[in-house]
C-alpha cells in the first residue's frame, strides 16, 4: 500500500471540517437554537423555518421575521373576528365580547406594526439601539396583553359554542407566536 501524502491528509481534514461547519451553522440549526429559548419552541421552529433562506443566521432578520409572522397572524385573526361580529343571531353578550375583542386585536395590530417599523431603526449600536429595542419590547408586550384580554372576554360558560372555540383557538395561536417573537426580541437585545 502506498504512502498518503501529508497534503492529501491536510486537505481531507479541512474538507471534513468545512462540511461539519456547514452542517452546524445552517440557517435551520440557527433557527432551532434560537427558538429553544422561547416558551413554544416547536411552534417557533415551525413558523420560522419556512423563512430560513431569508433569515440565514442573522439575528436581526430572525427577529424581524418573527414579528412579521406575529403581525400576519394577528391581522388574519382580526379579519376573522370582524367577520364573526357580522353573524346574525348573536346574543348581546357574544356581540359585546366580539366587539371588545375586535378593538383589542386592532390595538395589537397597531402595536406590532409600530414594533416592526421601530425594529428597522435598531441597526445602530449604543444608546440609540437601546432606545429603539426598548420601544419594540414594550409594544410587543402590550400587543400580547391585548391578545390575552381578547381571550379573557370569552371566559365563562355564558359564551360556549363554536364562535368561542374558534376565536380562542386563533387567539391562543396568535398569543403563542407573539410570545415567541418577544422572547427572540429579548434575546436579541441581551446579545447586543
TrEMBL record:
Sorted alphabetically, the keyword list is:
Signal
Signal peptide range: 1-25
Record has Hydrolase as a keyword: no
Which Pfam families would you find in this protein's record?
PMEI
Q: Which SMART domains match?
A: PMEI
The UniProt record lists the Pectinesterase inhibitor domain at 26-184
Q: Which family does it belong to?
A: Belongs to the PMEI family.
Protein name, per record: 21 kDa protein-like
**Provenance organism:** Abrus precatorius (Indian licorice)
- Phylogenetic placement of the source organism: Eukaryota, Viridiplantae, Streptophyta, Embryophyta, Tracheophyta
Amino acid at each position: 500500500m502506498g504512502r498518503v501524502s501529508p497534503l492529501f491528509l491536510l486537505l481531507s481534514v479541512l474538507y471534513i471540517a468545512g462540511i461539519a461547519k456547514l452542517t452546524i451553522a445552517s440557517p435551520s440549526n440557527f433557527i432551532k437554537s434560537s427558538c429553544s429559548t422561547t416558551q413554544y419552541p416547536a411552534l417557533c421552529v415551525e413558523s420560522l423555518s419556512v423563512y430560513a433562506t431569508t433569515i440565514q443566521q442573522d439575528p436581526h432578520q430572525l427577529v424581524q421575521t418573527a414579528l412579521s409572522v406575529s403581525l400576519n397572524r394577528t391581522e388574519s385573526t382580526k379579519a376573522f373576528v370582524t367577520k364573526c361580529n357580522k353573524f346574525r343571531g348573536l346574543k348581546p353578550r357574544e356581540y359585546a365580547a366580539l366587539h371588545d375583542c375586535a378593538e383589542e386585536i386592532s390595538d395589537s395590530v397597531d402595536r406590532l406594526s409600530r414594533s416592526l417599523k421601530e425594529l428597522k431603526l435598531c441597526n445602530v449600536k449604543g444608546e440609540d439601539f437601546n432606545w429603539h429595542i426598548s420601544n419594540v419590547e414594550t409594544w410587543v408586550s402590550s400587543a400580547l396583553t391585548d391578545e390575552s384580554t381578547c381571550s379573557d372576554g370569552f371566559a365563562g360558560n355564558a359564551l360556549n359554542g363554536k364562535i368561542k372555540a374558534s376565536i380562542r383557538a386563533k387567539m391562543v395561536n396568535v398569543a403563542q407566536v407573539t410570545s415567541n417573537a418577544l422572547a427572540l426580541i429579548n434575546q436579541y437585545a441581551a446579545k447586543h
